[in-house]
Design a protein that fits this description.
Layout (H helix, E strand, L loop, with lengths): L3 H20 L11 E5 L2 E5 L1 E2 L2 H13 L5 E4 L2 E2 L2
Parallel strand pairs: 2-4, 3-5
Antiparallel strand pairs: 1-2
Helix pairs in contact: 1-2
Length: 79
C-alpha cells in the first residue's frame, strides 16, 4: 500500500491554507514566513508574527480554507 494519495491530499490542503493566508488582509504580508505542515491529521502552524492580534487571526483564516481538522498554532509573537 502506498501513502502517495494521502501525501497528495495533504499537499493540496497545505496549498489551500497557504492561499488563504496569502489573501488575508492582515496576514498576507507574513504568510511566506509561516510554516504549515500536517502531522497526525493536525494542521501545525509555526513561525513568528509581530502581534497577538495577528496570531489570533491565524486559526479563523485557516478555517476559511475549509480546514475542519485540529489546528496547533505554535506561532510565536515577537515584536
Amino acid at each position: 500500500m502506498t501513502t502517495q494519495p494521502c501525501e497528495c491530499r495533504d499537499q493540496r490542503l497545505i496549498q489551500r491554507i497557504r492561499s488563504a493566508l496569502d489573501r488575508h488582509r492582515d496576514l498576507g504580508p507574513y504568510a511566506a514566513t509561516l510554516l504549515v505542515t500536517i502531522e497526525n491529521a493536525a494542521i501545525i502552524l509555526q513561525g513568528h508574527l509581530p502581534s497577538d492580534q495577528l496570531r489570533s487571526a491565524l486559526e479563523p483564516a485557516v478555517r476559511q480554507a475549509g480546514v475542519l481538522d485540529k489546528i496547533n498554532n505554535e506561532v510565536r509573537v515577537i515584536g
